[in-house]
Design goal:
The complex is a heterodimer of chains A (465) and B (167). Chain A is mostly helical and 465 residues long. Chain A is built from 16 helices and no strands. Helix content of chain A is 78%, strand content 0%. The relative contact order of chain A is 0.11. Chain B contains eight helices and no strands. Classes of the chains: A mainly alpha (465), B mainly alpha (167).
């Protein structure tokens, strides 16, 4: 039976997804770094195909849809069959993998040539939007096929999060695709724009954390009930909070009230999650000192949990009106975007990639030394980037409050852009190290016996009692 | 498997309630355009260029409703819903890497040539600008964009001037 496990459908394509995700991560982060240099050296903008506006779109969409979505696809194909005991239809899974890669390549070409819909996060031109819908249908079919053929009686929390994320992505994407006129367009766009971050990029990462932390520490989560309370509280609160991007825009006042209330209310599920996670880690902190592959994955996961905490507190505070009025439209917002996408989504995703590649290949990480370099470069670069941007945002806010002309503020920002590029470089170097490690790992010969052994070891940690 | 279907329905119900209660009402709200929001065909084409070329990544086109912009920077009248009635899509913008453009036409020279140079070679006018040069724009698109930019004026400013004039 356990030999079957290793040959199970979904594992091979999951491995492809994870490798592709890591390569796209390195590429799209490099593009982000180049875009940051363009803000220092404007002459880099001279070729229209590679000007800031074009590269920015590729960076944002690439990190979200090429890196994170690709990795999440891998996570779904790897974990859903494992958690349900069902089967993934392999043909559909492989087709969806190639389709997503095809969409990414076409999107890059279309953005470089300036074909975009001009709506943030929804820039994909219409034909590609339709391909995304086809991709979503395939992914949903594959995942739910595994659920329906599953034998597992009780669902582990990761599965709850994954299935909700899959439905949410389709729902949200449709909301975002509809072009409307006037302020309604902004309302629908941000319902999608933040909805997709909340309900796909965040919840998938939470599902991943619920899997990575128990299997790498070897201890089950503190309370499965608490994790389900977390899940349902999030589902109820997520969508109405999406419009907090528009608190300074002329949307109806009651909508502003609702969005602020729900954004602050997100602290509730967050605190449930932290109680659960820190109780799970209690007595396990020494495991962070472990010098092995799972220890490395655990480090990324715990960093993810910690920054998630910071992120939730910041998110609640900055939705409050006076704070929002101070920081809106400043670099603070850019800082928050990086804080959320790297801290909440990317760190757990990298933890998953390390933990899953070990179980998929039965091999340890090719070089732990480089893995640790990746971790520390990422952490230092990440904190540097977000601190720089947040301080820049506060400075911009102070300038506004002191009625200093904007032209002067722009000159002041230069030093922050420089610091940001420096820390961004650290992140990019870390990303290329990760890409090197994972590609090498992927090319090495799998040790099937070891993979079987690892799979059976983790059963205990994710059992639902 | 049985009871999980029930939870699935609960989940979808929450999703639909959220969608209908909180997104749809504003969508069906028809608001008469203000003077600012009343675009001609050429200006509307200019707005599409503005949006497609990604101007809104660095420039906002919205005066904060919480009055910080109006009070501290003297940016004038805060944005109204009607300002965006004919905008498709809405070009609010989210960051200010460059200055806000809501009432840009009030503070810059009127002439066409200035605008062409400011857009196609920004550093020939503002030496320390970090704006990308938009040399690749076709003549037609550039004209539309300039027409749109030149119409971005504060309607209340005119009223004030009018009052002054009548005195």
């Amino acid at each position: 039976m356990q030999q079957n496990l290793v040959k199970a459908e979904g594992r091979e394509v999951a491995k492809w997804c994870l490798v592709a995700a890591v390569v796209w991560m390195a590429v799209t982060m490099t593009i982000g770094f180049v875009a940051s240099l363009q803000m220092l050296f404007p002459s880099l903008n001279d070729i229209s195909w590679f000007s800031f506006v074009r590269l920015r779109v590729i960076h944002v969409n690439g990190v979200l849809f090429a890196f994170l979505t690709m990795a999440y696809l891998g996570a779904i194909y790897y974990l859903v069959p494992k958690l349900t005991g069902g089967k993934i239809p392999e043909g559909v899974a492989k087709t969806s993998f190639w389709l997503l890669n095809g969409i990414v390549v076409l999107a890059v070409l279309s953005f470089l040539s300036g074909r975009t819909e001009g709506r943030e996060y929804a820039e994909l031109p219409r034909p590609l939007d339709l391909l995304v819908v086809v991709f979503w249908v395939m992914m949903t079919y594959a995942a739910f096929k595994a659920v329906l053929t599953g034998t597992e009686k009780r669902w582990y929390v990761t599965l709850w999060f994954f299935l909700q994320s899959i439905i949410w992505l389709g729902f949200c994407y449709l909301v975002g695709m509809v072009p409307l006129g006037g302020i309604a367009d902004a309302v629908a766009l941000w319902a999608y724009g933040h909805g997709v971050l909340n309900g796909w990029f965040q919840t998938m990462a939470l599902g991943i954390l619920y899997w990575v932390i128990p299997v790498t520490t070897g201890r089950p989560i503190f309370s499965h009930l608490l994790s389900l309370i977390h899940f349902w509280a999030l589902v109820v609160l997520m969508f109405p909070g999406s419009n907090h991007h528009l608190i300074q825009a002329p949307i109806p006042e009651w909508l502003k009230f609702v969005t602020i209330a729900f954004s602050v209310g997100m602290l509730l599920p967050a605190s449930v999650f932290f109680t659960n996670m820190f109780q799970t880690l209690k007595g396990n902190w020494h495991q962070l000192r472990r010098y092995d592959t799972d220890g490395l994955a655990l480090k990324f996961a715990v960093a993810g949990v910690t920054f998630y905490l910071l992120n939730c507190i910041f998110a609640a505070i900055q939705s409050i009106r006076p704070v929002n009025a101070f920081i809106h439209a400043t670099q603070w917002v850019v800082g928050h975007a990086h804080m959320a996408v790297i801290g909440v989504s990317a760190l757990p995703t990298i933890a998953l990639i390390y933990a899953a590649m070990r179980r998929l290949t039965g091999q340890e990480v090719p070089s732990l030394r480089l893995g640790n370099w990746h971790f520390w470069l990422t952490i230092v670069g990440y904190i540097g980037v977000l601190a720089t941007l947040k301080i820049a945002g506060i400075v911009q806010g102070i300038h506004r409050a002191a009625s200093i002309p904007f032209e002067q503020t722009m000159d002041t920002m230069r030093i922050f852009y420089m610091t940001r590029s420096f820390f961004g470089l650290l992140l990019v170097i870390g990303a290329w190290i990760c890409a090197y490690l994972v590609v090498k790992w992927f090319l090495s010969k799998p040790v099937l016996e070891r993979a079987v052994e690892l799979e059976s070891l983790e059963r205990q940690a994710i059992a639902v009692h | 498997m049985g009871k999980y279907w029930l939870w699935g329905f609960v989940y979808i119900a929450i999703l639909l309630v959220c969608a209908f209660a909180l997104t749809l009402p504003p969508l069906f709200q028809k608001v008469e355009p203000t003077e600012y929001g009343n675009l001609t065909e050429l200006e509307r084409q200019g707005l599409r260029v503005y949006q497609r070329e990604g101007c809104y990544y660095c420039h906002t086109m919205m005066i904060h409703t919480d009055q910080t912009d109006a009070e501290y920077w003297g940016m004038g009248r805060e944005s109204k819903v009607g300002d965006y009635s004919t905008f498709e899509p809405s070009a609010l913008g989210s960051q200010r890497i460059g200055p806000d453009l809501t009432y840009v036409a009030d503070r810059v020279p009127e002439d066409e040539d200035w605008w062409v140079r400011r857009i196609t070679e920004p550093r020939s006018i503002t030496p320390n600008s970090i704006m990308p040069p938009f040399k690749h724009l076709s003549q037609e698109n550039l004209q539309a964009l300039i027409a749109f930019m030149k119409s971005r004026k504060n309607p209340e400013m005119k009223e004030l001037e009018g009052e002054k004039w009548s005195e």
